[in-house]
Amino acid sequence: MACCPPTALPYLAADYAAKGTTLTTDGVELYMAPPPDAPQAAIILCPDVWGWNGGRVRAVADMIAAEGYLVVVGKFLSTPCFEGGTDGDALPPGGSFDMEWIKNFPWPKQAPKVAAVAAFCKQRLAESGAPCKLGVVGFCYGGHLACHASINDPDVKVGVVLHPSMQLESYAFGGDTAALMQQVPVPFCLMPAGDDEATWGEDAPFSKELRASAAGAACEWKPFHEMSHGFSCRGDLSDPAVDRDVKAAFEETKAFLAKHLSSS
């Protein structure tokens, strides 16, 4: 099994004029959306296999930041990126997923990068007098980082994963996806596309392991049956159905983050 199903959507060029800035923290580059004066929490966006400037990822960051969050997007797949990557990260425009390449990024290699980005967020929150609360939002591969981050950082209070690919824990990194799901300690919302549902639908085996986790009773599934893997950040918005479901997915994302960050 690969990261994405065969019917996954291809690369989408970023055509959005991002409003934020790029910077480096502890050797890790990140994009920071325009921060509010008094953020209520911080959100780490973990991108798909086209990285920190592929598709709509920065537009999503700016949109979530407008809800009152400090939002950052990590450059997590640059060491090495594949054939030059997209803006120096992850796969190149027009590239295809490569299993041997993704094997360069098991959690032990990624953990210091995610920790550096989280530390940056915590410092900014402290400087503004905000509570130290983090959320994680993953797209595709980024769901793998989001789950591990929730397990390893007690300040992570909530997670959302759109068109999940946490099965890479087993198929790329030699781990146990079921065990990973069992260890997730906070509420997660999974939003599988139609071609993800065999693996990540609410009744799929890995999802049942998440349901059995410590916060499983608070986890939610919001399937988008008509969509293809990648729709939220790579779908064609000129298609009315895609436009409808992308808007719905991000309304669900914002609602789930607000629900669990305000109550934690």
Write the layout of secondary structure elements.
Layout: E1 21-25, E2 28-32, E3 42-46, H1 57-65, E4 70-74, H2 99-102, H3 107-127, E5 134-139, H4 142-152, E6 156-162, H5 168-171, H6 177-183, E7 188-191, H7 197-200, H8 205-211, E8 220-221, H9 231-234, H10 240-263
Parallel strand pairs: 3-4, 3-5, 5-6, 6-7, 7-8
Antiparallel strand pairs: 1-2, 2-4
Helix pairs in contact: 3-4, 6-8
- How many domains comprise the coordinates? 1
User: Going across the major beta sheet, what is the strand order?
Assistant: 1-2-4-3-5-6-7-8
Radius of gyration: 17 Å
pLDDT < 50 stretches? none
Percent range of helical residues: 25-40%
Structural class, by secondary structure, is: alpha/beta
Shape: globular
* CATH C-level name: Alpha Beta
Polypeptide structure, described:
Strands 1-2-4-3-5-6-7-8 form an eight-stranded mixed sheet, sandwiched between helices. It is built from ten helices and eight strands. The protein has helices at 57-65, 99-102, 107-127, 142-152, 168-171, 177-183, 197-200, 205-211, 231-234, 240-263, and strands at 21-25, 28-32, 42-46, 70-74, 134-139, 156-162, 188-191, 220-221. 36% of the residues lie in helices and 15% in strands. It has a single domain (21-263), classed as Alpha/Beta hydrolase fold, catalytic domain (Rossmann fold), CATH 3.40.50.1820. The chain has 264 residues and is an alpha/beta fold. The model has no long low-confidence stretch (mean pLDDT 97). Helix 4 links the parallel strand 5 and strand 6.
